[in-house]
């Protein structure tokens, strides 16, 4: 009898653990504003966005009053955070400016004019009621005389509360603000002109016609 009761208890526990409805998954989905800005990027390849470890895991994280960053195994992001952040940012910049910004690897035959890299230092729902997104972004233009950008961002979005749904909405809004800043090449930092010609790529070298043979 005890064996039967123990088996029944184990089955009930396994059933509870496997219940997918008890696990909530949240999307990163910036709101469409309808705003448009000038295209200052043209074609650009966005490298995978660098995220802090706590923000790159599958669980939604937040900061509690004691300063600790905590999470819950039942409250997850719907996609890999780095992939979702990168793809969402590329789409948001493109939609806002009309530029062709695509996450790496670059899928088109014509190479991009610029490379874009974003290094996030903080992406956190803070205990003070703000979602904070800080870091630096870099735009490289290999063409002679091209303008390279090295700029920082510090974005704060008020949190309605500390639940994961509110955190997901605030993060989505922060990414939208970051997309606007990158699209307009704004923020503290500087612009650096490319002073040397780009190094020819291997495919460029072999695509050139061969010189004529001597005496031909």
Automatic annotation (TrEMBL):
Record region (Disordered): 189-216
Superkingdom to which the source organism belongs: Bacteria
Transmembrane segments: none
Domain ABC-type transport auxiliary lipoprotein component: 26-183
Cross-referenced SUPFAM superfamilies: XCC0632-like
Record-linked Pfam families: ABC_trans_aux
Protein's name according to its UniProt entry: ABC-type transport auxiliary lipoprotein component domain-containing protein
Organism of derivation: Paracoccus denitrificans (strain Pd 1222)
Taxonomic lineage from the root: Bacteria, Pseudomonadati, Pseudomonadota, Alphaproteobacteria, Rhodobacterales
């Amino acid at each position: 009898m005890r064996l039967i009761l123990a088996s029944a208890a184990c089955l009930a526990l396994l059933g509870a653990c496997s219940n997918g409805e008890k696990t909530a998954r949240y999307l990163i989905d910036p709101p469409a504003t309808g705003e448009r800005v000038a295209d200052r990027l043209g074609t650009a390849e966005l490298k995978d966005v660098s995220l802090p470890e706590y923000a790159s895991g599958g669980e939604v994280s937040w900061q509690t009053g004691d300063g600790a960053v905590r999470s819950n195994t039942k409250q997850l992001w719907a996609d890999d955070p780095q992939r979702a952040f990168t793809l969402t940012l590329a789409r948001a910049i493109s939609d806002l400016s009309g530029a062709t910004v695509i996450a790496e690897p670059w899928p088109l035959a014509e190479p991009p004019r610029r490379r874009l890299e974003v290094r996030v230092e903080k992406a956190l729902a803070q205990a003070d009621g703000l979602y904070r997104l800080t870091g630096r972004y870099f735009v490289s233009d290999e063409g002679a005389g091209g303008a390279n950008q090295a700029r920082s961002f510090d974005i704060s979005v008020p949190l309605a509360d500390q639940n994961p749904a509110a955190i997901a909405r605030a993060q989505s809004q922060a990414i939208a603000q970051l997309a606007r800043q990158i699209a307009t090449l704004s923020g503290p930092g500087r612009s650096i002109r490319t002073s040397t010609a780009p190094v020819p790529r291997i495919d460029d070298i072999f695509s050139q016609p061969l010189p004529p043979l001597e005496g031909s």
